[in-house]
Fold this protein.
Amino acid sequence: HERYRGYLMIREGDNFVRDLHDHSTPAYHAKAAKYQAMLDAVYMRSLLAPAFEAAEVTGFGPSVDPTTGELRPGLGVDFRITLDRRRVPGHISAVERAVQATLVQELISVAPVAFTHTVADVDTFTLTSG
């Protein structure tokens, strides 16, 4: 199994609330389920679908302006993507790049599969192996 950790900043369509810091709150569970379902939909409809095992939201945070440090509207989403390396299609050689490109294509699409009511900041999107 191969895991990738990601971070996505939602600029429009969702905002951080204090209850999202606590993984035991109904607000956290509802928001995590929403974003997990969105990530599931993206990867299950991608070239990585045969290898896709799970998407998991691991946390939320406020949106912070990187230059001023001030809070602004938005929602930071930490997540994990798990793939079965043995099932990655043979024509995909750079798996990490494919995982990243799949989500970026969704975020910039004029007809997104799942991120239909949100606008994400593609420039701050990160994905790392591990």
